[in-house]
Amino acid sequence: MIDERQGNRVPVDQAARQLIARDGLDRTLFVEAGAGTGKTQALVGRIVELVLSDRARLTDLAAITFTEAAAAELRDRVRTRFEEARASLDAEGAAGAKKRALCEQALVDLDGAAISTLHAFAYRMLSEHPTEVGVPPRVEVLDEVQSLLEAERRWSQFLDELLSREDIEPLLLRAMHLRIRLHSRQRAGTKYSLRQIAIAFDQNWDRIVDFAAVEAPVLEPLDWEPLLDVIREVATMRSACTDEDDALAKVLLDSVEPAANRILDADQELERLRLLQSPFKRAGSKGKKENWGGDAKPYRDKISAANEAMEAFQNRAMEQVLRRLAIE
Protein backbone atom coordinates (compact mmCIF):
# COMPACT_ATOMS: atom_id res chain seq x y z
CA MET A 1 0.00 0.00 0.00
CA ILE A 2 1.29 3.48 -0.90
CA ASP A 3 0.80 6.59 1.21
CA GLU A 4 0.24 9.56 -1.16
CA ARG A 5 -0.62 12.21 1.44
CA GLN A 6 1.16 15.53 0.94
CA GLY A 7 2.61 14.29 -2.33
CA ASN A 8 4.56 11.44 -0.77
CA ARG A 9 4.61 8.06 -2.47
CA VAL A 10 6.07 5.75 0.15
CA PRO A 11 4.86 2.46 1.56
CA VAL A 12 2.78 2.83 4.69
CA ASP A 13 5.15 0.34 6.37
CA GLN A 14 8.25 2.32 5.40
CA ALA A 15 9.38 2.52 9.03
CA ALA A 16 9.27 -1.29 9.29
CA ARG A 17 11.22 -1.61 6.06
CA GLN A 18 13.91 0.73 7.34
CA LEU A 19 14.04 -1.16 10.60
CA ILE A 20 14.77 -4.37 8.70
CA ALA A 21 17.30 -2.97 6.26
CA ARG A 22 19.05 -0.28 8.29
CA ASP A 23 17.82 0.81 11.72
CA GLY A 24 17.41 -2.58 13.38
CA LEU A 25 20.65 -4.30 12.40
CA ASP A 26 21.47 -5.09 16.02
CA ARG A 27 18.03 -6.54 16.73
CA THR A 28 16.47 -9.93 16.11
CA LEU A 29 13.39 -9.45 13.95
CA PHE A 30 10.48 -11.61 12.86
CA VAL A 31 9.00 -10.37 9.60
CA GLU A 32 5.61 -11.52 8.35
CA ALA A 33 4.47 -10.33 4.93
CA GLY A 34 2.56 -11.58 1.91
CA ALA A 35 3.85 -12.45 -1.53
CA GLY A 36 5.21 -9.58 -3.61
CA THR A 37 5.56 -7.15 -0.71
CA GLY A 38 9.35 -6.88 -0.93
CA LYS A 39 10.61 -9.38 1.62
CA THR A 40 13.58 -10.40 -0.52
CA GLN A 41 14.46 -6.78 -1.22
CA ALA A 42 14.43 -6.00 2.51
CA LEU A 43 16.54 -9.06 3.26
CA VAL A 44 19.11 -8.11 0.61
CA GLY A 45 19.25 -4.60 2.01
CA ARG A 46 19.85 -5.95 5.50
CA ILE A 47 22.68 -8.21 4.34
CA VAL A 48 24.40 -5.41 2.42
CA GLU A 49 24.05 -2.94 5.28
CA LEU A 50 25.41 -5.44 7.83
CA VAL A 51 28.54 -5.82 5.69
CA LEU A 52 29.01 -2.16 4.75
CA SER A 53 28.55 -1.04 8.36
CA ASP A 54 31.38 -3.44 9.21
CA ARG A 55 29.22 -5.37 11.64
CA ALA A 56 29.91 -8.69 9.91
CA ARG A 57 31.61 -10.25 6.92
CA LEU A 58 29.48 -12.03 4.39
CA THR A 59 31.05 -15.31 5.52
CA ASP A 60 29.58 -14.71 8.99
CA LEU A 61 26.00 -14.54 7.70
CA ALA A 62 23.51 -17.20 6.70
CA ALA A 63 20.51 -16.58 4.44
CA ILE A 64 18.32 -19.67 4.21
CA THR A 65 15.54 -20.28 1.67
CA PHE A 66 13.30 -23.22 0.80
CA THR A 67 14.03 -23.68 -2.90
CA GLU A 68 17.11 -23.71 -5.11
CA ALA A 69 15.54 -21.05 -7.36
CA ALA A 70 14.96 -18.71 -4.43
CA ALA A 71 18.51 -19.22 -3.19
CA ALA A 72 19.95 -18.48 -6.65
CA GLU A 73 17.83 -15.34 -6.96
CA LEU A 74 18.86 -14.13 -3.51
CA ARG A 75 22.53 -14.66 -4.30
CA ASP A 76 22.21 -12.77 -7.60
CA ARG A 77 20.45 -9.87 -5.91
CA VAL A 78 23.12 -9.63 -3.20
CA ARG A 79 25.85 -9.65 -5.86
CA THR A 80 24.07 -6.93 -7.85
CA ARG A 81 23.63 -4.71 -4.77
CA PHE A 82 27.31 -4.97 -3.84
CA GLU A 83 28.36 -4.22 -7.41
CA GLU A 84 26.06 -1.19 -7.47
CA ALA A 85 27.40 -0.05 -4.10
CA ARG A 86 30.99 -0.42 -5.29
CA ALA A 87 30.26 1.61 -8.42
CA SER A 88 28.70 4.43 -6.39
CA LEU A 89 31.61 4.40 -3.93
CA ASP A 90 34.14 4.64 -6.76
CA ALA A 91 32.74 8.08 -7.48
CA GLU A 92 33.42 9.20 -3.91
CA GLY A 93 37.17 8.72 -4.20
CA ALA A 94 39.12 8.38 -0.94
CA ALA A 95 36.07 9.13 1.20
CA GLY A 96 34.55 5.81 0.29
CA ALA A 97 37.75 3.77 0.40
CA LYS A 98 36.82 1.71 3.47
CA LYS A 99 33.34 0.80 2.27
CA ARG A 100 34.71 0.10 -1.19
CA ALA A 101 37.15 -2.37 0.36
CA LEU A 102 34.25 -3.97 2.23
CA CYS A 103 32.36 -4.30 -1.07
CA GLU A 104 35.37 -5.89 -2.74
CA GLN A 105 35.74 -8.35 0.10
CA ALA A 106 32.04 -9.18 0.04
CA LEU A 107 32.15 -9.97 -3.69
CA VAL A 108 35.12 -12.26 -3.05
CA ASP A 109 33.28 -13.93 -0.16
CA LEU A 110 30.00 -14.29 -2.01
CA ASP A 111 30.70 -17.60 -3.74
CA GLY A 112 31.39 -19.24 -0.38
CA ALA A 113 28.62 -17.49 1.54
CA ALA A 114 25.86 -19.49 3.21
CA ILE A 115 23.09 -18.31 0.90
CA SER A 116 21.31 -21.58 0.17
CA THR A 117 18.39 -23.87 0.86
CA LEU A 118 17.84 -25.33 4.30
CA HIS A 119 19.05 -28.74 3.10
CA ALA A 120 22.20 -27.30 1.52
CA PHE A 121 22.97 -25.37 4.70
CA ALA A 122 22.53 -28.51 6.83
CA TYR A 123 24.83 -30.46 4.51
CA ARG A 124 27.39 -27.69 4.76
CA MET A 125 27.33 -27.90 8.55
CA LEU A 126 27.74 -31.68 8.45
CA SER A 127 30.62 -31.60 5.99
CA GLU A 128 32.46 -28.75 7.74
CA HIS A 129 32.01 -30.07 11.29
CA PRO A 130 31.65 -33.87 11.06
CA THR A 131 33.41 -34.61 14.34
CA GLU A 132 31.24 -32.23 16.34
CA VAL A 133 28.00 -33.76 15.04
CA GLY A 134 29.22 -37.36 15.11
CA VAL A 135 29.15 -38.30 11.43
CA PRO A 136 31.88 -39.72 9.16
CA PRO A 137 34.21 -37.01 7.77
CA ARG A 138 33.21 -37.73 4.16
CA VAL A 139 29.48 -38.03 4.65
CA GLU A 140 27.42 -37.73 1.47
CA VAL A 141 23.84 -36.56 1.13
CA LEU A 142 21.87 -38.52 -1.43
CA ASP A 143 19.41 -36.88 -3.76
CA GLU A 144 15.85 -38.16 -4.00
CA VAL A 145 16.58 -40.80 -6.67
CA GLN A 146 19.73 -42.03 -4.95
CA SER A 147 17.87 -42.20 -1.65
CA LEU A 148 15.13 -44.36 -3.18
CA LEU A 149 17.69 -46.69 -4.75
CA GLU A 150 19.57 -47.02 -1.46
CA ALA A 151 16.35 -47.75 0.41
CA GLU A 152 15.51 -50.44 -2.14
CA ARG A 153 18.97 -51.99 -1.70
CA ARG A 154 18.56 -52.08 2.09
CA TRP A 155 15.10 -53.62 1.73
CA SER A 156 16.36 -56.37 -0.59
CA GLN A 157 19.22 -57.15 1.77
CA PHE A 158 16.88 -57.26 4.77
CA LEU A 159 14.41 -59.51 2.94
CA ASP A 160 17.14 -61.96 1.90
CA GLU A 161 18.38 -62.19 5.47
CA LEU A 162 14.86 -62.56 6.86
CA LEU A 163 13.89 -65.40 4.51
CA SER A 164 17.12 -67.26 5.22
CA ARG A 165 16.37 -67.56 8.94
CA GLU A 166 14.69 -70.77 10.07
CA ASP A 167 13.82 -69.33 13.47
CA ILE A 168 11.56 -66.73 11.85
CA GLU A 169 9.46 -69.20 9.84
CA PRO A 170 6.56 -69.48 12.35
CA LEU A 171 6.31 -65.70 12.44
CA LEU A 172 6.22 -65.40 8.65
CA LEU A 173 3.61 -68.15 8.34
CA ARG A 174 1.38 -66.42 10.85
CA ALA A 175 1.87 -63.15 8.98
CA MET A 176 0.83 -64.68 5.65
CA HIS A 177 -2.30 -66.24 7.18
CA LEU A 178 -3.20 -62.83 8.58
CA ARG A 179 -3.06 -61.22 5.12
CA ILE A 180 0.28 -59.54 5.82
CA ARG A 181 2.45 -59.64 2.72
CA LEU A 182 6.16 -59.00 2.39
CA HIS A 183 5.97 -56.77 -0.67
CA SER A 184 3.94 -53.65 -1.36
CA ARG A 185 1.89 -55.21 -4.13
CA GLN A 186 -1.63 -55.54 -2.81
CA ARG A 187 -3.30 -58.84 -3.59
CA ALA A 188 -6.94 -59.61 -3.01
CA GLY A 189 -7.58 -59.69 0.73
CA THR A 190 -4.23 -58.21 1.68
CA LYS A 191 -4.39 -55.64 4.47
CA TYR A 192 -0.75 -54.78 5.19
CA SER A 193 2.72 -55.41 3.83
CA LEU A 194 6.08 -55.45 5.52
CA ARG A 195 7.37 -53.31 2.66
CA GLN A 196 4.96 -50.54 3.66
CA ILE A 197 6.43 -50.56 7.16
CA ALA A 198 9.96 -50.43 5.76
CA ILE A 199 9.03 -47.38 3.66
CA ALA A 200 7.46 -45.65 6.68
CA PHE A 201 10.58 -46.39 8.75
CA ASP A 202 12.84 -45.03 6.00
CA GLN A 203 10.81 -41.82 5.79
CA ASN A 204 10.74 -41.34 9.58
CA TRP A 205 14.11 -42.79 10.57
CA ASP A 206 14.82 -39.99 13.05
CA ARG A 207 11.70 -40.87 15.07
CA ILE A 208 12.44 -44.57 15.52
CA VAL A 209 15.97 -44.53 16.93
CA ASP A 210 14.76 -45.60 20.38
CA PHE A 211 12.34 -48.12 18.88
CA ALA A 212 15.16 -49.84 16.99
CA ALA A 213 16.95 -50.58 20.27
CA VAL A 214 13.97 -52.46 21.73
CA GLU A 215 14.32 -56.22 22.05
CA ALA A 216 12.01 -58.18 19.77
CA PRO A 217 8.95 -59.38 21.73
CA VAL A 218 8.27 -63.09 22.07
CA LEU A 219 5.55 -64.36 19.72
CA GLU A 220 2.90 -65.24 22.28
CA PRO A 221 0.32 -68.01 21.66
CA LEU A 222 -3.03 -66.65 20.52
CA ASP A 223 -5.86 -66.78 23.06
CA TRP A 224 -8.64 -68.36 21.01
CA GLU A 225 -11.21 -69.32 23.65
CA PRO A 226 -13.09 -65.98 24.01
CA LEU A 227 -13.53 -65.80 20.23
CA LEU A 228 -14.49 -69.46 19.90
CA ASP A 229 -17.17 -69.00 22.58
CA VAL A 230 -18.74 -66.25 20.46
CA ILE A 231 -18.58 -68.44 17.34
CA ARG A 232 -20.11 -71.43 19.18
CA GLU A 233 -23.05 -69.28 20.22
CA VAL A 234 -23.66 -68.24 16.61
CA ALA A 235 -23.32 -71.84 15.44
CA THR A 236 -26.07 -73.05 17.79
CA MET A 237 -28.55 -70.19 17.90
CA ARG A 238 -30.74 -71.55 15.07
CA SER A 239 -32.28 -73.86 17.67
CA ALA A 240 -34.09 -70.81 19.08
CA CYS A 241 -36.15 -70.50 15.88
CA THR A 242 -39.56 -72.17 15.77
CA ASP A 243 -39.87 -72.22 11.96
CA GLU A 244 -37.19 -73.90 9.87
CA ASP A 245 -38.39 -72.00 6.82
CA ASP A 246 -37.67 -68.64 8.45
CA ALA A 247 -35.37 -66.47 6.29
CA LEU A 248 -32.87 -65.87 9.12
CA ALA A 249 -32.82 -69.56 9.95
CA LYS A 250 -31.99 -70.35 6.34
CA VAL A 251 -29.10 -67.89 6.36
CA LEU A 252 -27.78 -69.61 9.47
CA LEU A 253 -28.24 -73.09 8.01
CA ASP A 254 -26.83 -72.41 4.56
CA SER A 255 -24.00 -70.00 5.34
CA VAL A 256 -23.25 -68.98 8.90
CA GLU A 257 -23.28 -72.38 10.61
CA PRO A 258 -21.05 -74.14 8.03
CA ALA A 259 -18.51 -71.31 8.24
CA ALA A 260 -18.60 -71.29 12.04
CA ASN A 261 -18.20 -75.06 12.25
CA ARG A 262 -15.20 -74.98 9.90
CA ILE A 263 -13.51 -72.55 12.27
CA LEU A 264 -14.44 -74.62 15.34
CA ASP A 265 -13.33 -77.91 13.74
CA ALA A 266 -10.00 -76.62 12.44
CA ASP A 267 -7.20 -78.39 14.31
CA GLN A 268 -4.40 -76.11 13.08
CA GLU A 269 -4.02 -72.51 14.21
CA LEU A 270 -2.90 -71.32 10.78
CA GLU A 271 -5.99 -72.87 9.19
CA ARG A 272 -8.20 -71.06 11.69
CA LEU A 273 -6.48 -67.79 10.90
CA ARG A 274 -7.13 -68.35 7.22
CA LEU A 275 -10.81 -69.09 7.85
CA LEU A 276 -11.24 -65.90 9.84
CA GLN A 277 -10.59 -63.90 6.67
CA SER A 278 -14.17 -64.60 5.51
CA PRO A 279 -16.78 -62.94 7.76
CA PHE A 280 -20.17 -64.51 8.34
CA LYS A 281 -22.93 -63.57 5.91
CA ARG A 282 -24.98 -60.66 7.23
CA ALA A 283 -28.65 -61.31 7.86
CA GLY A 284 -29.90 -57.83 7.03
CA SER A 285 -33.47 -57.56 8.32
CA LYS A 286 -34.29 -61.24 7.86
CA GLY A 287 -36.23 -63.20 10.48
CA LYS A 288 -39.80 -62.89 11.71
CA LYS A 289 -40.00 -61.87 15.31
CA GLU A 290 -42.70 -64.42 16.10
CA ASN A 291 -40.31 -67.20 15.04
CA TRP A 292 -37.60 -65.95 17.41
CA GLY A 293 -39.40 -65.55 20.70
CA GLY A 294 -40.78 -62.14 19.87
CA ASP A 295 -37.66 -60.44 18.45
CA ALA A 296 -35.18 -61.60 15.78
CA LYS A 297 -32.91 -58.55 16.07
CA PRO A 298 -30.75 -59.85 18.95
CA TYR A 299 -29.89 -62.90 16.83
CA ARG A 300 -29.00 -60.80 13.83
CA ASP A 301 -26.87 -58.64 16.13
CA LYS A 302 -25.02 -61.73 17.33
CA ILE A 303 -23.87 -62.40 13.77
CA SER A 304 -22.59 -58.81 13.47
CA ALA A 305 -20.94 -59.07 16.89
CA ALA A 306 -19.22 -62.30 15.85
CA ASN A 307 -17.85 -60.62 12.72
CA GLU A 308 -16.57 -57.73 14.81
CA ALA A 309 -14.97 -60.12 17.29
CA MET A 310 -13.26 -61.99 14.46
CA GLU A 311 -11.90 -58.77 12.99
CA ALA A 312 -10.70 -57.53 16.38
CA PHE A 313 -8.95 -60.85 16.99
CA GLN A 314 -7.16 -60.57 13.65
CA ASN A 315 -6.14 -56.98 14.33
CA ARG A 316 -4.61 -57.91 17.68
CA ALA A 317 -2.77 -60.82 16.09
CA MET A 318 -1.56 -58.61 13.23
CA GLU A 319 -0.31 -55.96 15.63
CA GLN A 320 1.72 -58.57 17.51
CA VAL A 321 3.23 -59.92 14.29
CA LEU A 322 3.97 -56.49 12.84
CA ARG A 323 5.68 -55.31 16.03
CA ARG A 324 7.89 -58.38 15.97
CA LEU A 325 8.67 -58.07 12.27
CA ALA A 326 9.36 -54.34 12.60
CA ILE A 327 12.05 -54.96 15.18
CA GLU A 328 13.56 -57.87 13.28
Provide a compact summary of the structure.
The chain has 328 residues and is mainly α.
- Overall pLDDT metric: 84
User: Number of helix segments?
Assistant: 14
Distance between the terminal alpha carbons, to the nearest Å? 61 Å
User: Which overall shape is indicated by the principal axes computed on the Cα atoms?
Assistant: elongated
- Bin the strand percentage: under 5%
Q: Which structural class do the helices and strands define? A: mainly alpha
In what order do the strands lie side by side in the largest sheet?
A: 1-2
Major sheet description: 2 strands, antiparallel
Order of helices and strands: EEHHEHHEHHHHEEHHHHHH
β-strand number: 6
- The value of Rg in angstroms is 35 Å
Portion of residues within helices: 55-70%
List the helices and strands and how they pair.
Layout: E1 2-3, E2 10-11, H1 14-23, H2 39-52, E3 62-65, H3 68-90, H4 97-109, E4 114-117, H5 118-128, H6 130-133, H7 144-163, H8 169-177, E5 180-181, E6 192-193, H9 194-203, H10 209-212, H11 225-236, H12 247-265, H13 269-275, H14 297-327
Parallel strand pairs: 3-4, 5-6
Antiparallel strand pairs: 1-2
Helix pairs in contact: 1-2, 2-3, 3-4, 8-14, 11-12, 11-14
